Inverse folding.
């Protein structure tokens, strides 16, 4: 008799649904027999500019060394990040995307009998990494689509080890200010590690958003995670980082895969960090695209959740799934977010002006069909 290997998986894993990524262009092209060149993908919060020229040049140079293992300590990138972020090199943890950092935290600090706290409508990876290690996911109802930080404090108990908060949050784009973050950090018990996920911070820096790094020195239970996947345009390479105390970084380093960040990613990230022009261009493009999408949504009589990310959740006022399907038939891929408890919204990544226009035209057409 063979074993039931679903039933044999640990209970937290049995209850998980796999992460659903944005639909790849080639998949849609295959399914609907469309020309991939005519498909617009605004579904995964990627940078529509493509990787920057400096990153691409660094990759070309690094290709020659593919036979060698990468620098397992990521010295060059960690040094640059430490300098940039005003921390010591031993406070930096590199990850295979910032997802990896979230997973390292869960593996190091969570276990059956312990719990992690996060918000309703928060990033889908928080429940995955929590349940994957058999810990309890405590989901706190959102307030106006955003994190209700005081309510999150209320559910923390002696068995809470981690709180995940995203600023801005994906898929809602909601954010909290410096005062709210400061109040929260002051009240979180010292035994709870606060993971402040700043995957989109570069789009909103200097705006109403606090810079998590400003709080690191005062709060040894704070870890700030960031990524090169969004504003730095390197999603395919998978590179992100965490900034924390050296103690937390040491703990994460114990459970990390020895070569979790590959050589091309290390080289490209170093170059991207120094390409301030590309970053500025990305921000400007995002601001203009956000305006364009908001104006377009307004013209169609639709509302949206105000967002500080490179995406916007538009409220269709009715079930979004059929509209998503209709958009696919028009060659436009966006992201349905029913799995985030938002069945009436679609999340649209800000694209190039022509891509945004193409989405708005397709949306008008699909909505007109009723
Ligand atoms: C809020 C948030 N955190 C983390 C990530 C992880 O991104 P990556 O692993 O590419 O760094 C994402 C990606 O969508 C995100 O939206």
């Amino acid at each position: 008799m063979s074993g039931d290997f679903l039933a044999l998986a640990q209970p937290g894993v049995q209850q998980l649904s796999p992460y659903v990524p944005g639909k790849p262009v080639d998949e849609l092209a295959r399914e609907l027999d469309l020309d991939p060149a005519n498909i617009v993908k605004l579904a995964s919060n990627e940078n529509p500019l493509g990787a920057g020229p400096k990153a691409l040049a660094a990759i070309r140079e690094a290709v020659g060394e593919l036979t060698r293992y990468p620098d397992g300590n990521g010295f060059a990138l960690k040094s640059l990040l430490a300098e940039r972020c005003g921390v010591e090199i031993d406070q930096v943890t590199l990850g295979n995307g910032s997802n990896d950092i979230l997973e390292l935290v869960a593996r190091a600090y969570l276990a059956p009998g312990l719990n992690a706290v996060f918000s309703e409508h928060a990033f889908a990876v928080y429940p995955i990494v929590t349940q994957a290690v058999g810990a309890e996911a405590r989901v706190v109802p959102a307030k106006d689509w955003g994190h209700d930080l005081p309510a999150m404090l209320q559910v923390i108990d002696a068995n809470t080890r981690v709180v995940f908060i995203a600023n801005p949050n994906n898929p809602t784009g909601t954010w909290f200010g410096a005062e709210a973050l400061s109040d929260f950090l002051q009240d979180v018990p010292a035994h709870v590690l606060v993971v402040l996920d700043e995957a989109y911070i570069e789009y909103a820096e200097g705006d109403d958003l606090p810079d998590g790094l400003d709080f690191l020195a005062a709060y040894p239970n704070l870890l700030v995670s960031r990524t090169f996947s969004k504003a730095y345009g390197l999603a395919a390479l998978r590179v992100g980082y965490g900034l924390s105390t050296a103690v937390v970084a040491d703990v994460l380093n114990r459970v990390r895969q020895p070569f979790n960040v590959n050589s091309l990613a290390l080289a490209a990230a170093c170059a991207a960090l120094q390409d301030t022009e590309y970053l500025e261009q990305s921000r400007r493009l995002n601001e203009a695209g956000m305006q364009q999408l908001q104006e377009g949504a307004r013209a169609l009589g639709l509302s949206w959740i105000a967002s500080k990310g490179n995406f916007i959740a538009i409220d269709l006022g009715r079930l979004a799934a059929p509209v998503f399907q209709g958009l696919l038939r028009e060659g436009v891929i966006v992201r349905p977010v029913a799995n985030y408890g938002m069945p009436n919204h679609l999340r649209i990544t800000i694209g190039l002006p022509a891509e945004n226009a193409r989405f708005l035209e397709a949306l008008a057409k699909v909505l007109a069909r009723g």
User: Anything to note?
Assistant: The mean pLDDT is 96. The chain is about 40% helix and 15% strand.
